[in-house]
Amino acid sequence: MAEKFDAIVVGAGPSGNAAAYTMAKAGLKVLQLERGEYPGSKNVQGAILYSDALEKIIPDFRDDAPLERHIIEQRMWVLDDESYIGTHYRSDEFNKPPYNRYTIIRAQFDKWFSEKVQEAGAMLICETTVSDLLMDGKRVIGVQTDRLGGSIYADIVILADGVNSLLATKAGFHPELEPKNVALAVKEIHFMPQETVEARFNVNGDAGVVIEMAGKITKGMMGTGFLYTNKESLTIGVGCMLSDLKQQKISPYQLLEEMKAHPSIAPILEGGEMKEYTAHLIPEGGYKAIPELCGDGWMIVGDSGMFVNAMHREGSNLAMTTGCFAAETVIELAAEQKPFTAKNLARYREKLNESFVIKDLKKYKNMPDVFHANPQFFTTYPEMLNQAAHKMLRVDGIDKKTKEKQIMANFKQRRSLFGLMGDAYKLWRAFE
Amino acid sequence: MSANVKVEEKLFQNRYRVDAGRPHIQIKDEELCASRCETQQCTVCCPAGCYTLEGNGRIVLITDGCLECGTCRIICNDHRNVAWEYPRGGYGVLFKFG
Ligand SMILES: Cc1cc2nc3c(=O)[nH]c(=O)nc-3n(C[C@H](O)[C@H](O)[C@H](O)COP(=O)(O)OP(=O)(O)OC[C@H]3O[C@@H](n4cnc5c(N)ncnc54)[C@H](O)[C@@H]3O)c2cc1C
Ligand code: SF4
Ligand code: SF4
Asked: β-pairing, A4-10 with A151-159?
């Protein structure tokens, strides 16, 4: 194929789909390449979809997108070995359309999104892995694929190829990922009758519940777990930083298995049929780990650019938003008949800086360092909190004031008062 | 503590199109794994159990069950001994749900 395109998009996840859709709508000649058999066949997510980002691209997505349940309740659990302490927030406000968050199944969702991209006029070729970027000196002029007879040319190449970001690494745009900046998540989907899901979570219709978890389930590693309700299935998963997994002797699937056996979790999964086991990396290095985002003839969007807000488990929305900004930059420059040089493409970075994307990531920029340096957030604290709750709730003839004293003594013994105050301060500084 | 789980049972639920005879990941220098890598952490961290330690101290990599996550490449950062590519287009794991 000696044909030349205005733009090539590598990848058909949310970032690539948002970019390809936006450019195709504006009348540009867009080619999108995806290595999977169909869009979504390589992709893994929890998965929560935030309406806002998608609404900006496809306002009426609710009409036909494959959505599982809208979320009306969020639970946060801190787990000890046999217990959890947590908060549940449920509001009927979340049960009034238009809904704000949905659970989705990525393989189905990506396929749907991709159909919209093709309707908008972009050309999609699946089952094709881009093996290298074609360079003319420092400028990207196209891509090399493992089929189609090789080279395809375009004025701009948008790298929406996900967390591993192999193409940019190979081209020398950024170094290899560091273990401290990526988490590995493993996940399973368990099917059960719709009525069972609804009874176990006290919901009806299309309403759903999500549970975010931290504590002993990650064996002291920096990480979290999750359990989400779909229409007739539950997804359960756990993720930890690679730098921590590298120090442990427990495999990721054993970690997941032990989490599933937790006495507060096992009854929820009881009787379900496990139909798929997946694993995927999440870029969690935050603001400080964001690589160079554009250069002559190329831009990076989505996970490939570290665009994940780990504190709020947001990724797909940042992927879509960054994909849109990159596309808008291309559309504007094309209209102004300006070349896609690094200097001109810097406009993409400006758009990011002015938006919630960079503002949010910047806000939490110290969070990864704080957690890496203070493992007690994942070990001692979950234990202490659970023990405190246990002590207060157990009726055993000891007065509450004495119990409080015992709890404080335990806190101080486990971690000095200065340590506790210091931790609170560190967290506050990082959140501020 | 639940009993040790066999990852094969989990992988059995997945769909794959294996590119027979063309593994997409390779160990660059097998001797290095056997003699100079102390922790051989790929055998622990791979979520699909693709790396196994043989009795003679050697590491064997079989990529048929690979979930294409990238973990093995990134955690081998002390030796950079993993040559990692995606499978050819259309091959490898095929998620039904993701
Ligand atoms: C377990 C888990 C739970 C998560 N939960 C949430 C959540 O609840 N909410 C949320 O918003 N985010 C969540 N995320 C994050 C979210 O999934 C990602 O941020 C999002 O998928 C990033 O989109 P992307 O398009 O940048 O990358 P991807 O979705 O990874 O898409 C990249 C695409 O590029 C293709 N590709 C890669 N290389 C090539 C190549 N060389 N040639 C051709 N094609 C290629 C891939 O096959 C893939 O289709 C979660 C992630 C994980 C792993
Ligand atoms: S971690 Fe790297 S060097 Fe060590 S055994 Fe595994 S592949 Fe070999
Ligand atoms: S890419 Fe992931 S699943 Fe595949 S061999 Fe490496 S660690 Fe294992």
From this structure: parallel
For the segment A242-275, what is each residue's pLDDT rounded down to a tens digit?
999 999 999 999 999 999 999 999 999 999 999 9
Distance between CA atoms of residues A143 and A37, nearest Å: 19
CB–CB of B92 and A45 under 8 A? no
Residue whose CA lies nearest to ligand 3 atom number 6: B72
Task: Give the model's confidence band at A30: pLDDT under 50 very low, under 70 low, under 90 confident, else very high.
Answer: very high
The token pair at A87 is 């908060």
Query: For chain A, what is the total number of helices (H) and then of strands (E)?
Result: 15, 17
Atom of ligand 1 nearest to the CA of A17: 25
| Residue B70 to residue A243: CA distance in whole angstroms | 14
CB contact under 8 A, B10 and A274: yes
- Residue pair A426/A370 in contact (Cβ under 8 Å)? The answer is yes
Question: A182, B17: Cβ pair inside 8 Å?
Answer: no
Look up the ipTM and state it.
Answer: 0.97
User: A297 to chain B nearest CA, in Å?
Assistant: 24
Q: Which ligand does the CA of B75 lie closest to?
A: 2
Interface test with B, best of A190, A219, A278 (most B CBs within 10 A): A278
Structural domain boundaries of chain B?
A: 26-86
In this predicted structure, the answer to whether residue A416 has a pLDDT above a threshold of 80 is no
Interface of A with B in 243-262 (CB under 8 A): 245-246, 248-254, 257-258, 260-261
B61-83 pLDDT, tens digit per residue, is 999 999 999 999 999 999 999 99
CATH of domain B26-86: 3.30.70.20
Give CATH for domain A4-67+104-174+291-354.
Answer: 3.50.50.60
A134-145 tens-digit pLDDT = 999 999 999 999
Q: What percent of chain A has pLDDT over 70?
A: 98
**How close does chain B come to A106, measured CA to CA in Å?**
5
| pLDDT number for residue A411 | 82
Query: Using 50, 70 and 90 to split pLDDT, how confident is the model at A415?
Result: confident
d(CA B34, CA B57): 5
What is the DSSP track for A75-124? Answer: EEEEE-SS-EEEEEEE-GGGGSSSPSEEE--HHHHHHHHHHHHHHTT-EE
Evaluate the CA torsion angle A130, A136, A137, A138 in order and state its sign. negative
pLDDT at A99: 97
Residues 353-392 of A with CB under 8 A from B: none
Average pLDDT of the segment spanning A316-327: 98
Check pLDDT > 60 for residue A240: yes
Which CATH architecture best describes the domain A180-283? Answer: 2-Layer Sandwich (3.30)
What secondary structure letter does DSSP report for A149?
T
Q: Quote the radius of gyration of chain A (alpha carbons, Å).
A: 23
The verdict on A166 touching B (C-beta cutoff 8 Å) is yes
